[in-house]
Amino acid sequence: MTTRASRTTTGRGRLYDSVVDTIGDTPCIRLNHIAPAHVRVYVKAEFFNPAASVKDRLAISIIEEAERRGDLKPGQTVVEATSGNTGIGLAMVCAAKGYPLVVTMADSFSIERRKLMRFLGAKVVLTPRAAKGVGMYQKAKELADANGWFLARQFETADNATIHENTTAREIMADFAGDRLDYMVSGYGTGGTITGVARVLRKERPTTRIVLSEPANAQLLGSGVVQTRGADHSPAASHSAWQPHPIQGWTPDFIPYVLQEAVDHRLYDELVPIAGPAAIEWSRKLAQREGIFTGISGGATLAVGMKVAEKAPAGSVILCMLPDTGERYLSTPLFEGVATDITEEELALSLSTPGFHMDPA
Ligand code: PMP
To answer: Is the CB of 256 under 6 A from ligand 1?
Structure first.
């Protein structure tokens, strides 16, 4: 009897001219073990992007739209303030397209992020964490003004939400065509994902409830306190409701202009705060019980998705955005308690057969 592997693949049916052409078309994956049985929960796994986060979409949009408008000249330096994923995405795009990149980043974000950007050829200028997101931003602006560099402006540019309207949302529409989609769950950093996706859902799937989340200890939207901004729409000051939180990439210390559209046009139906420990717990569960490896913000989104799921009518379909990979958090609280050396249980396993024992000392 001959056996045949039951899984086969056929290739993508095309050759790619550049890594940037592989951005987007990320899969929506069903959860089979950790979701309540009366609903279907899917995650949109943005870590399938080439630099492993949702921000690859933003990066290619900002660079290509600036090229089209003539705002970015060949070989001109790009500068941006970023908590990491935008910097990594921009570093990938800038390397592929031949632009030098300088990133300003508070020293509170994970070491992996700095090293990844530098590995991709970018310069990383650290700013004091006490100066928060506003400090990072002002430093990027100073450097742009002083050197004639192109400032990417992820928090203000229209090229942010537009790419999610034109790609992320289209993918969701196509993948759920002919199926239910009762809830879409997301957090916000710049607000690009939620604003772009919600523009399309509101028009084309108006019955889908849009659930937005923010950290329980930094409820900027929940507070109802409006954000003050300058003439260029950048934040004039830190928001009074902000506190340091562990959900990297979510909720900077101001309400971004890109997100303001979602607030003003009521692009979400519910605002559900989530605490850091729940985010970490659900990221771990997702890894260990579903084999899906996402960061803290993905865990936070899933934690909210599970709250929604518990109360959702039978048969409901829920989609949670997973912005990035868990590999970006090896030095953060996400991996706290994950052993480096052999554990007691593993040692017992090792000693249970005669050969190849490690000396526990
Ligand atoms: N999670 C992580 C880890 C991120 O880096 C970002 C982007 N800053 C987000 C979530 C939020 O995405 P958006 O900026 O589109 O709101």
So the answer is: no
Pick the residue whose CA is nearest to atom 11 on ligand 1: 189
Q: Is 144 helix (H, G, I), strand (E, B) or coil?
A: helix
Active-site residue list: 55, 297
User: CB of 305 within 8 A of CB of 30?
Assistant: no
What structural domains does the chain harbor?
19-49+168-335 (3.40.50.1100), 55-151 (3.40.50.1100)
Q: Is 15 exposed, middle or buried (0-12, 13-18, 19+ CB in 10 A)?
A: exposed
pLDDT tens digits along 174-233: 999 999 999 999 999 999 999 999 999 999 999 999 999 999 999 999 999 999 999 999
Ligand 1 proximity of 189 Cβ (cutoff 6 Å): yes
Among 157, 168, 190, 334, which residue has the most ligand 1 atoms within 8 Å of its CB, making it the best to mutate? 190
- The per-residue DSSP string of 296-330 comes to HHHHHHHHHHHHHHHHSPTT-EEEEEE-BBGGGGT
